[in-house]
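Review box. Two proteins, two foldings.
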Amino acid sequence: MEFLKNLAALIKVKTIVTMAVMAVFVILALRGSITADNVMIITSTVVAFYFGTVAEKKI
């Protein structure tokens, strides 16, 4: 049952948006449209925000 709860939590809008943003910037970096440094900064910011808000909810 806990697995299903965790799976349901992954389908939330915030998670989908986070994964989509990361995918877009990785694709842009692989195509050479933006530099790897920019991808690293943006992805780190998005992931830190996502995990920060998840951790805050659990406390």
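Next protein.
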Amino acid sequence: MNLCDLVILNFNTKELLRELLPLVIENSKHEGVQIVLADNASTDGSAAFVAEHFPDIKLINIPENRGFAGGYNYALKQCSSKYFLLLNSDIEPAKGWLDPILSHMEADEKTAIAQPKIKDYYRREYFEYAGASGGFIDKFGFPFCRGRIFGNVEKDVGQYDDKCKIFWATGAAFCIRSSVWNKAEGLDEMFFAHMEEIDLCWRVQNFDFDIYVIPESVVYHMGGGTLSAVNPRKSFLNFRNGLYMLYKNMPIQTRAKTILYRKVLDGMAACLFLVTGKARHVWQIVRAHRAFDKTKDQLALSNKEWPKNGLVNGSVAKQYFAQGNKVFSNLK
């Protein structure tokens, strides 16, 4: 058994692979690590390019685009290492980034998942939106990070360099024990893409495992490599999947009230989109709510108590928009 399968899920990002894959190979040298490219039925020749130019990389061809969740579920069924490391195709890892993560996982058997510090590929002194220095969540299901709350991204001056327990790790660079992945049955394919990793982290904590950020490990993330932030499709997935995540995982006693409150907050977000000239995103919120109401009964519910690590027992939206607390260290 290898120590780790480092699996890159690709969909039509041939030019990113041309630019970044050599850096991934060079900076991920570690005994027992196998690099895998899982191609999600790309049409840009990605798979053929990798097969020709990087013959040492294991290639998994997925017969159709199954999204982030379905693509990784398909690929990891063909992997058997002790750890699975999910890595976006638009990531440049720093040299030696694997050592701190794998060392921590080997030393602490209660850690199921770990992520590196995520920094901006283009503005390298700043955190990156997708994961910054570890993911947190408020009681209404809004995810945020050490270093990023909503759209406000902080400059990295070492303020979050301590290793700590978090609520969720970003799927952009995400290491998980294969035994835990199999126990959790992977990602929920109803999500397709976006927030499925937060749902998985929530479920994993119900098994009494911990999730850590290891800031000694650093990667640089472009962001929006497959679906950009301005794409209305992304708004649909984020708003629908946020409701999916709450409905699946919240204690049944408070679920209905929290879902209602979250829908009200989503309505306020729609008003903000409208006044800022982003009307297309308003319709996506309406679509997201309709899709949630239509399909919520298909979700597999857990309904456990809230995990304690990385939970803010209040509204981060209230603190951000009403009280002006836009920096993680200022949150109450």
